[in-house]
Design brief:
about 100 residues
Length: about 100
């Protein structure tokens, strides 16, 4: 999933979410490190419509690489470091 044409965007998202405070503008609600960032923030950073960002975020969430947190009307996305480490180990073993 990360090596498809859209995979580079997903890789970028995962990389940016390692240090969201360095890669995303401040948000009016939610701490980017603790809570994550919104789909709007990801769309703005990618330079794509919100719907495109949501497609990538939903895929990464479905794969378990991102966790979501709902605060008010917004959903925030952040990395699931435990799951990412598990997936990395699978690839290292030649999965």
């Amino acid at each position: 999933m990360l090596r498809t044409p859209g995979g580079t965007l997903r890789q970028d998202i995962l990389e940016w979410l390692k240090d969201p405070a360095a890669h995303f503008a401040p948000q009016p609600h939610g701490d980017p490190v603790e809570d994550g960032v919104t789909a709007d923030a990801v769309a703005s950073r990618l330079g794509v419509p919100r719907a495109v960002a949501l497609t990538h975020l939903d895929l990464l969430t479905d794969l378990g690489l991102l966790r979501t947190r709902r605060l008010g009307q917004h959903t925030y996305y952040r990395r699931d470091e435990v799951r990412i480490a598990e997936v990395a180990r699978m690839f290292e073993k030649g999965w």
